[in-house]
Amino acid sequence: MKKHTIRLHPIGKELQVNDQTHLIDVLHEFGIEFPCGGKGTCGKCKVRLLDGEIAITEIHRQKLEQLGLASDWRLSCFSLCTNDITLEIEQFNHLILADESEFNFSPREGFGIAVDLGTTTIVAQLVDLSSAKVLAVETMLNPQVKFGADLISRIQACLDGNSFEMTTIVRSSIGTMIRLMLKKYDVRVQKVVLVGNSAMQLIFSNCDVAPLSAYPFHIDNPGLKTFNPKELGWDLEVKENVQFYPSIGSFVGSDILAGIAATGLHLKENYTALIDLGTNGEIVIGNKNQIVCASTAAGPAFEGANISMGMRAVTGAIASLQLVEGKIEASVIGNTAPKGICGSALIDAIALLRKMELIGMFGEINSGEPQITIAGKVILTQRDINEFQLAKAAIAAGLTILARTLSIDLTDIEEIYIAGAFGSYINIENVVETGMIELPADKIHKMGNTALIGAKIFLFSDMGIVNNILAKTRHISLEADPGFQDIYVDKLLFP
Ligand code: FES
After folding, report:
1. Is it true that domain 3-88 has CATH number 3.10.20.30?
2. Is the distance from the beta carbon of residue 44 to the nearest atom of ligand 1 less than 6 Å?
């Protein structure tokens, strides 16, 4: 078959591909994102054609026109490689959160591998079980991103007949990550623990995700899934098994189970909360007697989706904002001109604009203008502010309803841990200023990748810890709470 070369500028990579290769199939690993799953509506997969030809169909031309892109741009999701080409792409600079934190463990013999299979990123660590020391780390973007950025698009892609490919690519990617770690340390693996949200667990396990696409979102078998490395296509010997840990509920997966283990909230006398501000926002409140948890549709705005100039934390994104002598100053990733705003800076922007009295308590722009300039060409529109209100209200309402379910007051929560890569970059004072978490900032702590910490804790234990957590945990549907609508509307307001 005819082969072509794709040169990627400015990262200087070259790929050899077969004739008629879809760009969407090869560019995801270089940081190109496909939030709309290849429908041609988001424009985020755009690349600039510097050399060579990419034929444009009529529909592709219309999409470029609708997105206001000049004639040298192409949407990767609509493009085929039919000759040698040079493309300009965003430099891959995705922030993936590994973990080096310490935790309590009882030493064991051998080596283990912990994997956090996230919707956006995958992190794997090789751990010496005698010391809990991390010997090697591998990170990558989840190759399923070419099927869409969020869980809903992934589930839809499975329903559209792509489930086999989605299972195969994720199994093979994790297999490669493990192989790379074992190349550096040729050791005998005792146990492999995987954690991830419910959809990731089902897709990895080659189970049907259809129940997650429609009410009542009930998964028949969210339990522990055990595999032989051979059936996953991994050329690896594992003394015990490869295990994907159980989900707690339909949209609360083993990443949150691991997060509970990482915070130790299931052992504490006082009430503690865990909030994972990932693509899906999950909330847990509990103590040693009882735990409640729920998922909210909070994540997309915090990850740049639905925000007109929203983007992930890559080069050119405003990462944070400060008020200096009455003026907003922006820190931009890569020290370049700002191209857009990522979730952490969106929270800063709202908090600062409120402080400057440029937006009112209903989220209205006080000047009556349709937008506010944040830095350079980056603006926030009235719609963006309203999108943020929807996301922050989802978290605030979730916390209130879970506290009510436990018959406690929000103020009874001693500590709140914020998990996830996004959570690591937020300014907690500004989170409080927006009303997303209605507790003093000194009760709120960032904890990093709690899913990975928990997965490592599971490497050292039998199922006792998991059974203990599951036995006292209730999964709540926030929308089913009779007070949900009123509470949610109330939380849309700024304090
Ligand atoms: S336009 Fe959205 S993925 Fe291509």
Report:
1. yes
2. yes
